[in-house]
Automatic annotation (TrEMBL):
Protein name: Sodium/proline symporter
Residues annotated as transmembrane: 6-25, 76-94, 124-143, 163-185, 192-216, 236-254, 275-300, 320-349, 370-387, 393-418, 425-442, 448-466
Function field: Catalyzes the sodium-dependent uptake of extracellular L-proline.
GO MF terms held by the record: proline:sodium symporter activity; sodium ion binding
Family to which the UniProt record says this protein belongs: Belongs to the sodium:solute symporter (SSF) (TC 2.A.21) family.
GO annotation terms (biological process): proline transport
Organism name: Nitrospina gracilis (strain 3/211)
Major location (coarse): membrane
UniProt subcellular location: Cell membrane
Catalytic activity: L-proline(in) + Na(+)(in) = L-proline(out) + Na(+)(out)
Length: 486
């Protein structure tokens, strides 16, 4: 264990130095709000595709999905098509339209997009979307910091009170330095490490158990319900779970940390190429995570915390050097999302509120400086939240995922494809999606059906119905967009 600890420390230090180097290199380009929050719209296909997917997955892929498959077995397979359908929805139907629209209007954040698109002089849409983003991002980031704590606890036995501040400090430093461009490039590197680690460990575990026949025999002996398609669940519970896992894909159109990658894409060709890179990345990540979780039932039949499976398997099955690299993949998964979330939350405070509403006469240098202070404050705040209580990463992330997806997803899609949507309809959709998510989650109904399904459905209805009722105001509240159709 001493040898492994030394190897991990060396690899992790090299990894941290690489992240900080990217942050320093990109810090030289932070000359305006557009540079700091959108990388001056310069991202190419591989960076756009891998960074957008890595920023949306994180600890729930490497730790959470592996743990879900360990617990639910083959029933967790529905998570794979749910996520890939979400990728496809974003890339085929949303990415290019949003990129072009944001370029035409000069929007550099999602609240910018809503305000410009609906010509909202009251600033209600900006303030409402900022509030939803800030609340959801803080919860989301706190869950990622919890992932850091679980990883260090599983590998070294280091308490989360130590590991969370250390990991958080590293992320905050490179995000402060390089802004969005640093986040995009570090996410790209972290996404490659993440997929490599999951694929290697899943294949090694599969081979270790003897391939298909060995896995089937040993997993069935350790936990017979794992290889049952319904996971031993009653029919009603299984179908509720299946619909919920498929419904996770509905959240992708409403994730600001993903949407800003499309807005930052250099041109249409980037989107056309990036879709296939993103789908391939997602298939490898989630397919490997589910396979590893199923194999884990034979490898560790009495594991107390399913979300410890990945680091435990890496420690036991891989050579020391490779173990160090693979375990660094866990940190890469978490850090890629944390930095992406922090930069979005920062843009909401520094750009959308302070620069746009409080002091619009700031110089570029002042905007960047305020943004960096905001990164520091938000990062520390999220760390403090995560230190208060240890949560189950998968479900806590899904709450924030649903709040963002159901609040923004329907509004984004309607705004790009239906010219009848009104400002009032957008407000109704955001409020309905967010409130339904919170109420459904805290009522306990999430155990029956994932809150994304009812929240997204009701938000969609709210956008449509309220837009119809306020259609007489459409000409005054909706900006003309020649790409939209009836």
């Amino acid at each position: 264990m001493t040898e492994l600890s030394g190897a991990i420390i060396v690899v992790f230090c090299l990894y941290v130095l690489l992240m900080l180097a990217i942050g320093w290199a990109t810090s030289r380009y932070q000359k305006s709000a557009s540079h700091y929050f959108l990388g001056d719209r310069s991202l190419k296909a591989w960076v756009t595709a891998v960074s957008s997917t890595a920023s949306s997955e994180s600890a729930w892929a490497v730790l959470g999905t592996v743990g879900l498959a360990y617990k639910d077995g083959l029933a967790a397979l529905w998570f794979l098509p749910g996520c890939l359908l979400g990728y496809a929805l974003n890339w085929f139907f949303l990415a290019e339209r949003l990129r072009k629209h944001s370029l035409d209007t000069g929007a550099i954040t999602l609240p910018d997009y809503f305000e410009f698109h609906f010509n909202d002089k009251t600033r209600v849409l900006r303030m409402l979307s900022v509030g939803i983003i800030f609340f959801s991002m803080m919860a989301y980031v706190a869950a990622q910091f919890t992932g850091i704590g679980k990883t260090f606890d599983a590998i070294f036995g280091i308490p989360h009170t130590v590991s969370i501040p250390v990991g958080g400090a590293i992320i905050i430093v490179y995000t402060m330095m390089g802004g969005f461009l640093a986040v995009a490039w570090t996410d790209f590197v972290q996404g490659l490490i993440m997929v490599a680690g999951l694929v290697v460990l899943a294949v090694v575990g599969f081979v270790h158990l003897g391939g298909f026949s060995g896995v089937a025999e040993q997993v069935n002996a350790a936990s017979p319900e794992t290889l049952q398609w319904m996971g031993g669940k009653p029919t009603a519970v299984f179908f509720g779970s299946m619909i919920g896992l498929l419904g996770i894909g509905l959240g992708y159109p409403g994730q600001p940390q993903v949407l800003n990658r499309y807005m930052a894409a250099k041109n249409k060709k980037v989107i056309e190429t990036g879709v296939w890179i993103a789908l391939g990345w997602g298939f490898l990540v989630y397919g490997s995570a589910i396979l590893l979780g199923i194999c884990g039932n034979a490898l560790y039949p009495t594991l107390d915390d399913p979300e410890h499976l990945f680091p435990r398997a890496a420690t036991d099955l891989l050579p020391t050097g490779l173990t160090a690299v693979v375990l660094t993949g866990v940190m890469a998964a978490i850090m890629s999302t944390v930095s992406a979330l922090i930069i979005v939350a920062t843009s909401s405070v520094a750009h959308d509120v302070y620069s746009k509403m409080i002091n619009p006469n700031l110089t570029h240098e002042q905007i960047v400086r305020i943004s960096r202070y905001t990164v520091l404050a938000l990062g520390i705040g999220a760390m403090l939240i995560s230190l208060m209580e240890t949560r189950v990463i998968f479900w806590f992330v899904l709450l924030a995922w649903s709040a963002l997806g159901s609040s923004f997803g329907p509004v984004i899609l309607f705004s790009l494809y239906w010219k009848g949507v009104t400002r009032e309809g957008a407000i109704a959709g955001m409020v309905t999606g967010f409130v339904t998510t919170v109420v459904w989650y805290h009522s306990g109904m999430k155990d029956v059906l994932y809150e994304m399904i009812p929240a997204f459905t009701l938000a969609t209805l709210a956008v449509y119905v309220v837009s119809k009722l306020t259609a007489h105001k459409a000409s005054a509240t909706v900006t003309t967009n020649p790409e939209r159709s009836e």
